[in-house]
């Protein structure tokens, strides 16, 4: 009997026992608990008076409590709010109730409310996750990449300034092993001009970073984890506008808003941004030929072919809270980008005329409905179509130096004169359903169909109609069973995923010396579980395991026409992921303290690895046989009132080649066996301190000071087995300091911020030892009306 069949039988048996046990749970009352702003309150304790029967509200303030038939008094309590009592009738047919709690003004000014918000609820859940309340950082000039780079286990290594390519790593797993979503939809649907380095923080309410095991509502083939950007979900009107200017002629503008017509209930949402930067920061100690001395000499020179700009706009029109839909929206977006390319994986090779442009159109529909079939079924549907065109130009027959001078060359800058065109059509649809069998037991289903057609050609040699497009069809079916015991103190999630991918591609035939069409199919089952035990209200342990597959991505196979070359022989990865964690939080008076620790193991087969081509400064994705990754991480957070917040974290990650025999032989031991995987930081950490004061200069104002320290220990750039042991290239230790100050007036309506990054102007490196920018200054003005 196959393993997934055994899992299925086990789930059926468990469900049967659960259903039998639940027969005497009695009748129920359901509803929502809100504050005076009609916002759902999380963590409200609800109990039947004079009994031990109790429950808590979820992240949106919803609750359900069971009791015997008849009348009973429910008591609602939450720190910072007045206790509320209400008589309820437990019967077969009861409409949902709405409870509004009133702030306790006698203590609200002195007590920090410690009810679990959405961020803390996620952190205490079964999955290993970083949940960041980005809304608190909306006044900073940082982009989402910079914000996430400060968090535990995350390392973002960008190849340059604004808009440059980057490597995002979660617990040592990077590249396409990490997936990015916005409200559960792949971020790639919005086009290449939209990513974590260009998205303004104002567009996000919070960011969820799942490490290793990913919940099935994202229904992805990610092995390293996933990043899900959650946008504001309030149905109230608001306008959020910001403009930021800074060093290297950097300008960022964003305009987001929502308008709701109370008469018709129609909602219009707008999200837009503009980014521009010359990225002309100083490159230090670049080798320039001095003909007078007949030798190379180091000089400090500005980048000169690295301008980036992008524009994005998205509009959604829909309704909420109707009998047939909790929410229904249709929308469209468009993104455009223009990007000059200064260098690739090797900064000794510099370009003066290579550039890339592109645009993308996206059309989508979103539908949600909860409490179908007598409050048992929740439904979530998404369907979207995107069309993008990218153009990479490399036509100058020159060889440039860092001082901007050039010499005529027999080839173009990247080795082959070309105008590479990429046309992509993508259809993405997702259906998710949650079925509550009985209280504290539910089934979760998710199905994703992802179809992509890619047509890549050199416009100087052929036309689109002459090229056979490559096609990729992914299907992922996910199923999970979640059970909760002892008033949610013990939660288990068992899940299984079925992966299927079909690929039609053109592969070069060595015999006929021509390209010929090839079909490649892959399918398999993945499975796993996640569990958490809350020993006390503030102390808990968690663990998870997953046997997962990571399917190849279009960019890895087809390349991008600029920095990534194609590899049609790439194979999917497979991995066993193990995660364990511990958390503890404590509150005394006006002080709050939280500590978290986690460990993980990733045993990966056919590991997809980024390999640089030093001759033309491009990248290529290749399979390594076996990679074993082990790591530890820890985080400490202390808060005093709204005055002081200190966050410290450290991450240790070791990945090495676990392939003993080279080239499938039985006696030739691989030269890299048990050696560290290069170009991956193994020890890094952050310290972030903020000090704030309300009503200091004027009423309804707030001033806040920020200091951040980022440390990355040295690591090998290349395999330490190859070359002279005394001369193996390394990326040295880096310590960067950032400071900032923000001032808000009129309860956050007017906001002004000033930030300085890399305060000490230290020489900083990133992916493949590419230099990052030095000291930089930014100022931002933000207007928020709600």
TrEMBL record:
The keyword Glycoprotein does not apply. This is Outer membrane cobalamin translocator. It is found in: Cell outer membrane. The keyword Signal applies. PANTHER family: HEMOGLOBIN AND HEMOGLOBIN-HAPTOGLOBIN-BINDING PROTEIN 1-RELATED (PTHR30069:SF29), TONB-DEPENDENT OUTER MEMBRANE RECEPTOR (PTHR30069). GO terms for cellular component: cell outer membrane. It comes from Chryseobacterium jejuense. Residues 123-226 form the TonB-dependent receptor plug domain. Belongs to the TonB-dependent receptor family. SUPFAM superfamilies: Carboxypeptidase regulatory domain-like (SSF49464), Porins (SSF56935).
């Amino acid at each position: 009997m196959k393993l997934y069949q055994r899992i299925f039988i086990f789930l059926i048996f468990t469900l049967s026992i659960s259903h039998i046990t639940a027969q005497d749970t009695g009748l129920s009352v359901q509803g929502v608990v809100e504050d005076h702003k009609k916002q759902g309150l999380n963590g409200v304790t609800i109990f039947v008076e004079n009994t031990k029967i109790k429950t808590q509200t979820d992240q949106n303030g919803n609750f359900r409590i069971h009791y015997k038939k008849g009348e009973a008094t429910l008591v609602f309590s939450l720190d910072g709010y007045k206790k509320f009592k209400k008589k309820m009738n437990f019967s077969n047919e009861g409409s949902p109730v709405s409870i509004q709690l009133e702030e306790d003004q006698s203590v609200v000014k002195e007590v920090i409310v410690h009810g679990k918000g959405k961020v803390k609820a996620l952190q205490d859940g079964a999955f290993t996750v970083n949940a960041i309340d980005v809304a608190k950082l909306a006044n900073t000039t940082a982009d989402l990449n910079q914000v996430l780079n400060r968090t535990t286990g995350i390392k973002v290594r960008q190849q340059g300034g604004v808009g440059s390519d980057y490597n995002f790593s979660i617990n040592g797993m990077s590249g396409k092993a990490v997936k990015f979503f916005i409200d559960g939809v792949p971020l790639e649907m919005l086009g290449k001009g939209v990513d974590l380095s260009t998205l303004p923080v104002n567009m996000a309410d919070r960011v969820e970073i799942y490490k290793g095991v990913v919940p099935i509502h994202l229904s992805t083939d990610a092995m390293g984890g996933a990043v899900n950007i959650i946008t504001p979900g309030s149905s109230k009107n608001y306008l959020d506008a910001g403009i930021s200017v800074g060093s290297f002629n950097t300008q960022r503008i964003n305009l987001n808003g929502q308008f709701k017509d109370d008469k018709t209930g129609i909602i219009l949402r707008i999200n837009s941004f503009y980014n521009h930067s010359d990225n002309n920061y100083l490159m230090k100690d670049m080798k320039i030929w001095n003909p007078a001395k007949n030798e190379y000499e180091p000089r400090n020179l500005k980048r000169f072919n690295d301008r980036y700009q992008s524009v994005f706009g998205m509009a959604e029109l829909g309704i909420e809270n109707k009998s047939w839909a909790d929410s229904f929206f249709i929308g469209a977006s468009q993104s455009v980008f223009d990007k000059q390319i200064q260098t690739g994986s090797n900064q000794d090779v510099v370009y003066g005329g290579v550039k890339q442009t592109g645009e993308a159109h996206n059309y989508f529909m979103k539908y949600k409905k909860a409490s179908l079939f007598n409050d048992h079924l929740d439904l979530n549907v998404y369907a979207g179509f995107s069309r993008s065109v990218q153009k990479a130009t490399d036509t100058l027959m020159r060889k440039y130096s860092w001082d901007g001078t050039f010499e005529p060359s027999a080839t173009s800058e990247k080795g082959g004169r070309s105008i590479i065109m990429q046309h992509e059509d993508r259809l993405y649809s997702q259906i998710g359903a949650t079925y509550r069998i009985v209280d504290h037991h539910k089934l979760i289903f998710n199905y994703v169909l992802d179809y992509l057609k890619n047509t890549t050609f050199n416009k100087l040699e052929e036309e689109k109609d002459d090229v056979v497009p490559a096609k990729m069809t992914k299907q992922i079916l996910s199923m999970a069973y979640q059970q909760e015991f002892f008033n949610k103190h013990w939660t288990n999630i068992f899940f299984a995923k079925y992966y299927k991918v079909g690929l039609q591609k053109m592969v070069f035939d060595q015999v006929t010396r021509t390209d010929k069409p090839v079909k490649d199919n892959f399918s398999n089952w993945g499975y796993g579980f996640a569990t958490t035990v809350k020993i006390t209200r503030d102390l808990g342990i968690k663990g998870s395991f997953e046997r997962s597959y990571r399917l190849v991505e279009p960019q890895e196979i087809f390349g991008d026409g600029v920095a990534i070359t194609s590899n049609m022989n790439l194979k999917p990865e497979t991995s066993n992921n193990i995660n364990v964690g511990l958390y503890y939080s404590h509150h005394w008076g006006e002080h709050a303290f939280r500590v978290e620790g986690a460990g993980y193991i990733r045993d990966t087969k056919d590991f997809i690895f980024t390999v640089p081509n030093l001759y033309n400064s491009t990248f290529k994705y290749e399979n390594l046989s076996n990679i074993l990754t082990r790591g530890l991480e820890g985080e400490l957070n202390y808060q005093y009132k709204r005055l002081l917040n200190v966050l410290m974290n450290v991450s240790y990650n070791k990945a090495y080649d676990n392939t003993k025999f080279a080239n499938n032989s039985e006696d030739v031991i691989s030269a890299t066996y048990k050696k560290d995987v290069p170009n991956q930081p193994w020890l890094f950490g952050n310290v972030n301190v903020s000090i704030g004061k309300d009503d200091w200069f004027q009423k309804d104002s707030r001033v806040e000071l920020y200091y951040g320290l980022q440390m990355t220990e040295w690591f090998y750039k290349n395999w330490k087995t190859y070359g002279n042991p005394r001369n193996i290239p390394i990326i040295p230790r880096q310590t960067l300091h950032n400071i900032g100050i923000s001032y808000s007036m009129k309860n956050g309506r007017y906001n002004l911020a000033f930030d300085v990054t890399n305060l000490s102007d230290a020489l900083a490196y990133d992916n493949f030892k590419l230099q990052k920018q030095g000291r930089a200054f930014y100022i931002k003005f933000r207007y928020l009306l709600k």
